[in-house]
Amino acid sequence: MFGSGPPERVQNLRTGEGRGRARMKQDCATRDLLDEAGKLWAEAGSVIAMRTARINRCDADAGTEMVRMVTEKVWAGWELGIAFAMGQLGHDPETVCRHMVSHYRREVRKNLRRLSAND
Question: Structure pTM?
Fold first, then answer.
């Protein structure tokens, strides 16, 4: 029992046996979506750290940065809410998630570039 390797069902999951090509293709698309979400998480963390440092310096731009931060979040939420309500993000959950992650990543990257240039 021990040392004989993982159970057959685990081996099948690793090799893709017992599943059709469509299922494997879906798994790749899901993995890509999770990869993009992970990048968003890391980039957003960097932006949070940069903004926190700027606000903690209490310089003249600290108040402006706080207002900008809240305004951007509210605006991004409104944009996505309206696009979702109008059906512009797609109709299946994976497509909607992909569009949302893409939208937020684009906004976060803009902030990352702006904050990096100013420091």
Answer: 0.70
